[in-house]
Amino acid sequence: MTCWRDGSKAMRFGVLGPLAVWDETGALVTVPEAKVRTLLAALLAHDGGPVTADRLVQDLWGDRPPGKPAGALQAKVSQLRRIVGRDGVERQPAGYRLRIGHSDAIQFRDLVTQARATANPRARAERFAEALGLWRGEAYADFADEEFARSAAHRLAELQLAAVEEQAAAQVEAGDYSAADDLTDVIARNPLREGLRAAQMRALYLRGRQSEALASYADLRTRLAEELGVDPSPELRAVYESLLRQDPALAAEPRGNLPRPLTPLIGREEALKQLAGLSARLVTLTGPGGVGKSRLAVGLVSAYAGSNRDRHSRGEFPDGVWLVEFAGIRGTAADLAEAVAAVLGIRDSVDSASPTQRLATALRDRRMLLVLDNCEHVVEAAAELVEALLRGTRDLRILTTSQEPLGLPGESVFEVAPLPPADAVRLFIERATASAPDFARDLDAITEICRRLDGLPLALELAATRVRGLGVRELAARLNDRFAVLTRGSRGAPARQQTLRAVLDWSWELLSAPERTVLSRLAVHRDSFDLAAAEAVCAGDVFDLVLRLVDRSLVAVTNGPAGVRYRLLESVAAYAVEHLTDPAATRARHLRHYREIAENAQLRGAGQRTWLTRLDVEAGNLRAALDEAICRASAEAVRLAKALSWWWLLRGRLTEGRRMLSAVLRVAATDLELTVLNGSFALLTGEQAPPDSPDGVRALWLRAYSLFSVGDITASYEVNERALAAAGDDEWGVAAALGLRAMLSLVRGDLAALGRDGLRSAELFRRLGDRWGEMQTIPPLAALAEIKGDYAEAARRQHDGLAIARELDLQAEVSARLSGLGRLALLERDWPRARELHEQALRIASDHGYTYGRIHAEMGLALGARRSGDLDAAEHRLTRLRDEYRDVSSVAGDHLLYAELGFVAELRGDLVQARTYHLQGLEYARMLDEPRAFALSLEGLAGTCAPQSAALLLGAADAARRTVDAPLPAAERGDVDRITEAAQAVLGSGFVGVFESGARLSVEEAMRMVS
């Protein structure tokens, strides 16, 4: 026991059960009064750390504090001091703290630590038994419902359970199989604990009760599937499979010093499979600091199925698996050899051989696996040692971890990648739960944390420790200052792994001055970059230095459609940019390089696809360059914004384009071209264009295109005619103006002009190799074929458009073309195919935020539902379209919407409501001033009228369609035929005469008749 000479008493405290206090003789000391006991428990729960007065008042009185809480608390402290001594409770600025000389919790933790460090399994089991014998019940048993005790009790209970697991495993290794029965009650309380199951299964098997061992596994597998939807871990499956094949190594005591992981290995199943298949004698795990190389190395040799520690120790590696940590060693190969010899217990000899030679001689005939951890700072010396050992031995195998390969012949290098998103989230949640069991699992915030921390396990574990104090939302918000937040790691971790900055300091210190300069300059990239960008931004031939940084796992390499690309993890970039010595010059080079890329992009013509892909890949850096230009170089900003405007248009990045053009205009001198571009993008994003005067064929065409997009058909037509007149010999300008005029003709009902201009535009764009331009001719030409009833031609054009859209990765166009094909399937009465195509279109539009694509797909689904007889589904979709998309709908869209609502009401027999809807549709037809729109409304109204009026309206509608050479095709006559048959049933042979009379009415006369 501990005694002090300062007025505090030598006391021993007990929390592993009900709260207890013993004096120096071991006699139980009574702590009178419940509040004093609560005060003592609250101070003990903080392990001797300070506790604020406010916290203690809350712990003692909850939400009903006394009138003078400070005085009341002081009174309880005085009472406690009379028990533990006047200095047993100290008052500090941070609060009160209890001087804990000795407690059963401290003794328990110390004994567990000693047990884990004990090599002999029998002695280890005995030490665990001593530790577990300290428990008298549940930790803080008489304060189980108190908030202050919950976390401390949880940690102690978890450690107790881990100690039971490890004691049972040690007993089995030592030949004591009592765990077969001793663990029954513990497993009943913790049925999903795999460590307990593994120990019990081995003990049962080794007692000859194999069926019970297999039944235990089957019970766990069923529970995991039913309760969690997962399978047993690879480690437990390995035990199960060893039982099935009656592996004699089950009872063997492993040789070596491999540590037992305190937490499960998460997200490395695929890596373990790949590593298990490597047959090289030397395998090196590489990757950035904090990626989990050491943990994976331990997992490989101790946990993976078919490669557990028993097999390694007694089968493939009878001389054991030995881990040697190089992190604290700096020196030559001889120094490293002496460290390995010390771990293996190989004594020095008196001969003249070097330490490396002596070690190789000692290991010549041994079959073992050496794990050499953290070689990056002694990579040359490690390579020398490993080469000597492999050359001087027959059966030795070596697994190394290093931020860069050793570079030896026969070395198999395995890059340990950061965790993929799903596994990163799983790791974070598990670690955060251990720290704060009741934390709010905001999946969006957790996903953001994992993304910002690049899926690095160490960074995620550091972040998880902060959840208890910050919560996940606040933690995510503070990651812009990640080095100030991630500052507290596990107490058992090495100093270099205690903080995120320490992890990166370790890697930075290994770099040469030129490597540091290049890495800090590369950090200005916002996303991946190619070698040309690296050389431009770093101002020189840095090929070798970039590759050195790749070897050191500080720069990652990817190979995709755009070729070889490089990138820095976000945390590495954040660290490196802090060390940038010439930020202004480096960012200026970055801006200049990406401005030149944008200006050189050929987005009109044969190189379009290649350049679109290139600019897509460079999107992050182009945005960063433009941001930099807006802040520091307005003239550069103007040039870059102009160069990017066509890419924004082709990619549908209209909001981004509008925002960036406006930002440039705020800081730049007046520029007419930029002002016109800004006005056109304003229209494209639903805003009003400021006054300007577009000039030149391309500026005029873009303005006409933007006016068309907002439904101003008249203004669009006028400006487009000016563009066509200004085009002259500019074939692209002619093609663009003709293509837009074809679309305008479709809306205006001029089908002859549509065909003439659309075909000429498509021909010109094909000759120019402009696939985007060619795709713009697809909608009007496909619509023309559909109107004419040539569905095969319409389908061919829609499929051509779909192929181009997929080729250029234009997802909005993919959605539109799928909806077009769905429309054709409706006309062919293939309801399942139509629904499938429209649902595909809807998914793609929703995934990419394409509002008009969602509207078109939803309308297609509504049309299909009505035509297939599902009036409820049709009405549901139509009313949702009306209510949810009111602010973005077009006149043409609203016209079709009310026509369909009218037909639904008519089919239900509600002719009053049907007439109301069709009259509303007729108002939209007036706005469109297009014969086919008038015809549709008149046909709908005919279904709500008496037979005589119905026949007149049907005749007028048919005549309106024929004025634009677009009679209703057979596949679209369903509604008209139904209404016609109803009128004929009453009028008989007189129907024809009335119909012909209606055909002689003008549209205006027909509308007056309806009114």
From TrEMBL:
SUPFAM superfamilies: C-terminal effector domain of the bipartite response regulators, P-loop containing nucleoside triphosphate hydrolases, TPR-like. Belongs to the AfsR/DnrI/RedD regulatory family. InterPro entries: AAA_22, BTAD, OmpR/PhoB-type_DNA-bd, P-loop_NTPase, Sig_transdc_resp-reg_C-effctor, TPR-like_helical_dom_sf, TPR_rpt, WH-like_DNA-bd_sf. Gene3D superfamilies: P-loop containing nucleotide triphosphate hydrolases (3.40.50.300), Tetratricopeptide repeat domain (1.25.40.10), Winged helix-like DNA-binding domain superfamily/Winged helix DNA-binding domain (1.10.10.10). The lineage of its organism: Bacteria, Bacillati, Actinomycetota, Actinomycetes, Pseudonocardiales. This is BTAD domain-containing putative transcriptional regulator. Residues 103-244 form the Bacterial transcriptional activator domain. Residues 26-98 form the OmpR/PhoB-type domain. Keywords: DNA-binding.
